[in-house]
Amino acid sequence: MEGLVGRRAVVMGGSISGMLSARVLSDFFDDVIIIEADDPSYVKSVRKRIPQGQHSHVLLQAGQQVLDRLFPNFINELIEDGSVVADFTNDLEWFHFGKWKKRFESGIMGVQQTRPFLEWHIQRRLRDYSNIRIQNNSLVIGLLLSDDQRTILGVKVRTPNSSGESDIQCDFVVDATGYGSQSRKWMPDAASQSPLEAVKIDLFYATQFYQTDSSKLGWKNLMISAQLPDQPYAGVILSFEDNKFGVTLGGYLKQPPKTDEEFRLIAKALPQQHIYEFLLNAKPISDLNTYRIPLQVRNRFDRSKSMPSHLVVLGDAYCRFDPLYGQGMSVAALEAELLGAELRNMKDREELNTFHNRFYKKLVKLTQGPWDMAITESFRHPNINGRRPRDVKLMQWLTQKIYRASANQQDVYLTLAQVMNLTESSTAFFRPAILPKLFVRVRNTDG
Ligand SMILES: Cc1cc2nc3c(=O)[nH]c(=O)nc-3n(C[C@H](O)[C@H](O)[C@H](O)COP(=O)(O)OP(=O)(O)OC[C@H]3O[C@@H](n4cnc5c(N)ncnc54)[C@H](O)[C@@H]3O)c2cc1C
Known about the structure:
The protein is α+β, with helices and mostly antiparallel strands.
């Protein structure tokens, strides 16, 4: 749509999804207010309400590309400030489905930085937009609904340091409050009962940061993937700014380690000893932090005819992925960009009354690939519960072929790297140049 869609938009939550949505909305609304419960954090350190900031975060190619489109030169700024640049296939030593992958230069260059470092950089660029305001220390406690309960008219906000509660009226609301989102509870009854897809992965995450002499490693990143059901643990080492290495261990349907010793024992239980040996030789520079991810969840608002208008739910509030695939921030970026594209497609302001229906349908399509990638692997475990797609066995047979062939077939690995980075759809594996290679017998290269 040419020109402005409305006077004011409110974004609930000021993390990755909220900030990127606000950036997009600033092109369409006079005034964009981010309501964020946390303190203002103009430092590159973990925020109270983002406990996952203590864990390594991967930013996929698709996410990098969106950030550069929304904030030109953003990735160069990260690099200038110290982000580590790594070639996905060349700088990663990866043990996956019983094989070490053969490394080669792919040109898929990732920037690696800790989560607070990335968030700080986005915050900094957001300050260039004079029509975006961040209201910190303010908790959204409800939605303002029209009398017929069909339209969201604004939000109710509690500001602990001042005099209680206030209403903020607006033309459009984005819920970007993350996994703990309360929107469902605040919606009218029929909408709050819209379907939900849930896969009970019961995954623990345990991360500790280290420093070491990196000159002897021969890699920037190292990963030992889980292979369910027999191998429920995964481990990854990623290099970040200031010569920091984040070591993360994850386990499906397993208890997290409580001590450094238990952390090391889990590393020892992995099918290869590289992470265990790294831990013996490196110096810890942080505490051990753990986090539990009980569910992978996606709201199917597209299946409800009763969703209130003038509101969309994005980011982890809409869909929470298995974090071991590193998709959440990049998908949130793609969702923000989709929001902009759909607002631009509107013919007139009246379309805001039905916008959400069309948007939720597109959101399902956008998230389908990353969602399928993770749940296909989860469902290899008989005790991981959720609605198994009918073709899951076929998908698992095919992905096993892909994973094994990618160990020493360059173009299969390149395609896998592109699909994992969300720059290609999984249909790329069906290209005539790739498909036959999935069925070539490969030599065992276990190290
Ligand atoms: C352990 C772990 C590891 C992860 N690793 C990766 C990774 O490697 N790569 C990746 O891309 N993603 C990863 N993720 C996912 C990633 O953290 C999220 O997808 C990403 O932060 C986007 O989330 P969000 O912005 O939707 O919500 P969040 O980041 O959870 O932020 C929600 C925001 O809303 C605010 N808020 C909440 N409620 C209210 C309220 N009522 N009023 C006002 N403000 C409110 C919070 O203070 C917070 O700032 C990981 C997640 C976890 C848990």
